[in-house]
Write a structure and sequence with these properties.
0% strand, globular, CMD-like, AhpD-like, Fusion protein
Length: 200
């Protein structure tokens, strides 16, 4: 069971309206948002931040942002966020080969050097202690502009919040996210873990 139970979608009308954003990204309102509704100011502020971070201003595509989120969530070990990120990448048009080989992004030909630089940045920024160094910076600047790097770090930081929220909360994972995770991540050992709604 989760640490705190989610509230029904109709609990806070403003959150419910804002949460329509997730119908596009995931096809459902995440249980994490429904749990945040215990303090509606948090749920509303989080959704607004999510929308701002995921808005595309440059060449950092919606699909790449979700792959950045997956690498970050994989680094921190949050299975809930891994499933959500791979599902959103799929829904936003990530190439089939990239979805199938996200674990091998450093070597698989489906990923460009620019994408590898972005995903390496995500991995380094998501570790504790932080591993972003001059080499990561140099690779980023070979392919990306400063505003685009800000977009990437926005995604990484957003998922840092989500990784801690959902792993600590043991948020119950939704069936749609499970389907995507089992399809693309299951062969690498992904499982629901504490997010199955029964453990914890």
């Amino acid at each position: 069971m989760p640490l705190v139970n989610p509230l029904p979608p109709e609990h806070d009308s403003e959150t419910r309206k804002l949460a329509e954003f997730f119908n596009e990204t995931l096809g459902f309102c995440p249980n994490s948002i429904l749990t945040m509704q215990h303090r509606p100011a948090i749920s509303k502020a989080f959704i607004e931040l999510n929308k701002a971070v995921m808005e595309n201003k440059g060449r950092v595509t919606s699909a790449l942002k979700r792959m950045i989120a997956w690498v970050s969530s994989n680094a921190t070990g949050c299975r809930y966020c891994q499933a959500h990120a791979i599902r959103a990448a799929e829904r936003y048009g990530a190439e089939q080969e990239q979805l199938d080989h996200i674990w091998e992004y450093r070597t698989h030909p489906a990923f460009s050097e620019a994408e590898r630089a972005a995903l390496d940045f995500s991995l380094a920024a998501s570790q504790v202690p932080n591993q972003v160094d001059d080499q990561i910076k140099k690779k980023l600047y070979q392919h990306w502009e400063e505003g685009e790097i800000v977009e990437m770090l926005g995604v990484i930081s957003l998922f840092g919040y989500l990784n801690r929220w959902n792993d600590s909360m043991a948020t119950t994972i939704e069936s749609g996210a499970v389907e995507s995770a089992e399809q693309y991540l299951g062969k690498h050992g992904w499982e629901k873990g504490k997010h199955d709604g029964h453990l914890y």
